[in-house]
Amino acid sequence: MDMEAFFTLYDDLPRGGPSDGDSLDWALALAGVPADGAICDAGCGPGADIAALLAHVPRGRVEAVELHPHYADRAAARFADEPRVRVRQGDMGALTGPFDLIWSAGALYFLGVTEGLSRWRAALAPGGAVAFSEACWFTATPSARARAFWDREYPQITDAAGIAAQVEAAGYTVLGQRPLSDAAWEGYFQPMERQIATLSPGASAALADVLAAAEDEIATWRACRAEYGYLLTVARPR
């Protein structure tokens, strides 16, 4: 895939993946983050979740870490006047902390669930937790269309029990799991559709390929949403 074309589509989207306020609120309540707590948004993208995280720690702070410089710059500009937010460009696999919560919306797969949680253990404050969303099968018999999509995009996809097993392998206990809502997905896909419509006229061959792949991603999820999605998991080290 042509990465310049890829970022032409994705860099200006309001968020880098599915997420929603209700799921975030559920996760932070389950984790028991204190009002003066420290939260890390690991793989924050353009910073779509930072404001909601900050609202849960009215006397605390949020540190957001993003590897992609353009996203990090966008998130930093968005919160330039908020002293309780620090955004930095860097590797989310090398967090230092201590944090009461590490939040990662659809980004932990870059490290792998077990590997990422193992690395993050040292960055958690005593009693701290991790909340992350991960692609997940919701059926044991996915359709050929759904299977073909994930075989191409992320063949490591597993089900809720498989994600729980990866969490346990890192020495964590699962506190709770729940699927992200359809609204979380549409909140991600609808701005993408508008961006596709804007970019399609006169698109180069490379950009047209990226736009077609994004359209296929959207259409496949809408057709197969009962078969897969993102599972939000909250876990704490044993």
UniProtKB/TrEMBL annotation:
GO molecular function, one term: methyltransferase activity
UniProt keyword list: Methyltransferase, Transferase
Domain Methyltransferase, chain residue ranges per copy: 39-128
Matches recorded under Pfam families: Methyltransf_25
A biological process term (GO) from this entry: methylation
UniProt xrefs under Gene3D superfamilies: Vaccinia Virus protein VP39 (3.40.50.150)
Protein name per UniProt: Trans-aconitate methyltransferase
Protein's organism: Rhodovulum steppense
